[in-house]
Write a structure and sequence with these properties.
The complex is a heterodimer of chains A (about 200) and B (about 200). Chain A has about 200 residues and is mainly α. In chain A, about 75% of the residues lie in helices and about 0% in strands. The longest helix of chain A has 26 residues. The N and C termini of chain B lie far apart (about 60 Å). Classes of the chains: A mainly alpha (about 200), B mainly alpha (about 200).
């Protein structure tokens, strides 16, 4: 008898599953779509646009090329200033030409990596910070209304940091001559992509 | 029952469990109920509420960056201040909605990111302020729930969290590890800034 009970339960499983459909839960038809409901939504947002992804990776690459302390100063500057830009966007403060600014960020940061340019740390941070405002503003205006601003914000910032970390990780190949050449190639690629973004923004 | 049937039963049970887990339900941040009593409710509240947890984490990181003495003081002062704030909060009705979490994240995250040198007394003052403010809101939320025992649970958890994270940061000797802590601080500050914009919208 003891052996047969689990088998019977197994037979009842389809019925149990069917009954579970009737479990009481809130029906949120269509409301959840595009909502800032949590960490995952925020985490996915920076990955949603190639122009943002390319520029953020370029920041990491350039930081890796410049070495310490730029390697961590630039990726710290970008999310902080980007959040300021996002705040502007959230508050409805207009920023003209944000799409052009984003495209220019890819062009200039790509050119920096291509040319292995080494300006003073403050100039590099100012350049990265300047473009971060455009990226943040675009994100801020796109942020959907939602319930959990906190988790969304954290996911958003962590994703940005992950993109920089990706750039830095790739940039570690800079220590080898072949890697240095490859990085300059990546810089060229990013700059060319930036030109296409600019073309699209102006069209 | 043979092994084949048993495995099938286990698989079916797992499928049912996954299905139940996928059923939507509400997450109520200020009403964490463990079913194990108010002390555990307080502990769970702190661990499951990012508004409080991240603030405590950033304060612990900053105290750790400032050294063992600052960490030790925060370890004792933060729980006491939190409890005092909680008692005050439980006596008040109609707590205003303020962007406390956003400001805490912004200020404490910036301090961690900048690794700002500050006397131990100033770090202690920060710990007391953060404890009083966050404790006040917790006390108001716990008034009709876990109550004073819930606050005691939070106190215990605060002590443990600050001890662990501060001691961890104090123990870091390599330069890049301290940099990683500062980067984490910058992310917390950026989240706070974004959250502030969100709350002002």
């Amino acid at each position: 008898m003891r052996e047969r009970i689990p088998y019977k339960l197994q037979q009842c499983l389809p019925l149990l599953l069917a009954l579970m459909v009737f479990l009481p839960s809130s029906a949120l038809a269509h409301v959840e779509s595009g909502q800032a409901t949590g960490f995952i939504t925020g985490f996915k947002h920076p990955w949603s646009g190639l122009d943002h992804v390319v520029a953020m990776i370029a920041v990491g690459l350039w930081g890796a090329q410049l070495g310490n302390p730029a390697m961590w100063v630039l990726p710290v500057t970008f999310p902080l200033v980007m959040s300021m830009g996002a705040m502007m966007g959230l508050l409805g403060i207009p920023l003209p030409g944000s799409e052009i600014g984003i495209a220019m960020s890819a062009i200039l940061l790509g050119a920096m990596v291509l040319g292995e340019l080494r300006p003073h740390l403050i100039i590099a941070a100012l350049l990265v910070g300047f473009f971060a405002i455009f990226h943040g503003h675009a994100h801020g205006t796109e942020l959907p209304p939602g319930e959990s601003g906190l988790l969304y914000s954290m996911g958003f910032v962590i994703a940005t940091g992950c993109l920089h970390a990706t750039g830095i990780s790739v940039g570690l190949i800079h220590r080898w001559p072949v890697g240095r050449l490859a990085m300059r190639g990546v810089g060229l690629f990013i700059a060319v992509m930036g030109i296409t973004f600019l073309w699209r923004a102006l069209a | 029952m043979n092994w084949k049937n048993r495995n099938q039963s286990i698989r079916a049970g797992l499928a049912a469990a996954i299905f139940v887990l996928c059923c939507p339900s509400f997450a109520a941040a200020h009403l964490v109920t463990t079913g194990m009593g108010p002390v555990y409710d307080g502990i769970a509240h702190l661990l499951l509420t990012p508004e409080d947890f991240v603030a405590v984490l950033s304060l612990a990181l900053y105290s750790g960056l400032r050294g063992a003495a600052a960490g030790r003081r925060t370890m004792f002062l933060l729980p006491l201040a939190w409890f005092a704030g909680g008692i005050a909060g439980s006596m008040v009705s109609g707590v205003p909605a303020l962007p406390t979490a956003a400001l805490s994240f912004l200020i404490l995250g910036s301090l961690v990111a900048a690794d700002l040198r500050m006397p131990v007394n100033a770090v202690s003052a920060f710990a007391v302020i953060i404890g009083l403010v966050h404790g006040f809101f917790n006390g108001a939320a716990f008034k009709d729930g876990a109550g004073t025992l819930g606050l005691l649970g939070i106190m215990a958890m605060l002590f443990v969290l600050v001890a662990l994270f501060s001691a961890f940061v104090v123990s870091l000797r390599k330069f890049w590890m301290r940099i990683a802590v500062r980067v984490a601080g910058s992310w917390i500050a950026a989240s706070g800034l974004l959250l502030l914009g969100w709350s002002l919208r």
